Amino acid sequence: MGLYPYQACLEAMQKFTGQRDAATMDEIWLLQHLPVFSQGQAGKPEHILSPGVIPIVQSDRGGQVTYHAPGQLVVYLLLNLKRLHLGVRQLVSIMENSIIALLHEYGIQSNIKHAAPGVYVAGRKLASLGLRVRRGCSFHGLALNVDMDMHPFKQINPCGYPDLSMVQLCDLYPDCDIDRVEISLLDQLCHHLGYNKRLESIVVNETLISAPIGAC
């Protein structure tokens, strides 16, 4: 989907989830956002230290405040969890394990923290997770820092943790390319979700034409 404003994408996810039925195919959206602080449902204003000119958008995902910008790969998982026989905790594990497998391709060892979902490298957070489930269907997903301006993370307490250090993939593997990362992460997600094929969505005249990800 390329570079997509956060508010517009939020509304598109809400609309898609509200209108889908038992026969609606699952979708995975891959995109980047314009600079924005997104505040989750559990977010507290005191964790936004100095927003400056960066807009703040109240989101309906779980979690607290985080930062999005070009160079960060965002993946939204619009899935019928009932049909997939998945619980929220299982979907979180699928996202985390997919990212860990991706990083393994780059020779990077990473880990998770059960009390603070996400993926970490040497104590620094590389990927953040946030979900919402409505009528048994998920939306929102994950944000993987690849090659972005990291400074605005210092203007917030990321995910509500004052001492949390953030990191991006290009600091760990300087030759990484976000387009290749995107393809590899999508393949890992499809594999861990049990999909046997995938078709990519396309954008025509700035209108999203959604193709099915595939049968599971």
Topology:
Blueprint lengths: L2 E2 L1 H14 L7 E7 L2 E4 L16 E3 L7 E3 L3 E9 H4 L3 H18 L13 E3 L2 E11 L2 E9 L23 H4 L5 H16 L8 E3 L2 E3 L7
Parallel strand pairs: 1-2, 3-4
Antiparallel strand pairs: 2-6, 3-5, 6-9, 7-8, 8-9, 10-11
Helix-strand pattern: EHEEEEEHHEEEHHEE
Please identify which CATH superfamily we are dealing with.
Bira Bifunctional Protein, Domain 2
Structural class, from secondary structure content? alpha+beta
Mean pLDDT: 89
The name of the CATH architecture is 2-Layer Sandwich
CATH class (first level) name:
Alpha Beta
Query: Any idea of the CATH topology?
Result: BirA Bifunctional Protein, domain 2
- Name the overall outline: globular
| Strand adjacency order, main sheet | 1-2-6-9-8-7
Count of the separate structural domains? 1
Distance between the termini: 23 Å
In the predicted model, the low-confidence regions spanning at least 5 consecutive residues are 198-216
Report the portion of residues in β strands.
25-35%
User: What does the main sheet amount to?
Assistant: 6 strands, mixed
* Estimated helix fraction: 25-40%
Q: What is the gyration radius calculated from CA atoms?
A: 16 Å
Total beta strands: 11
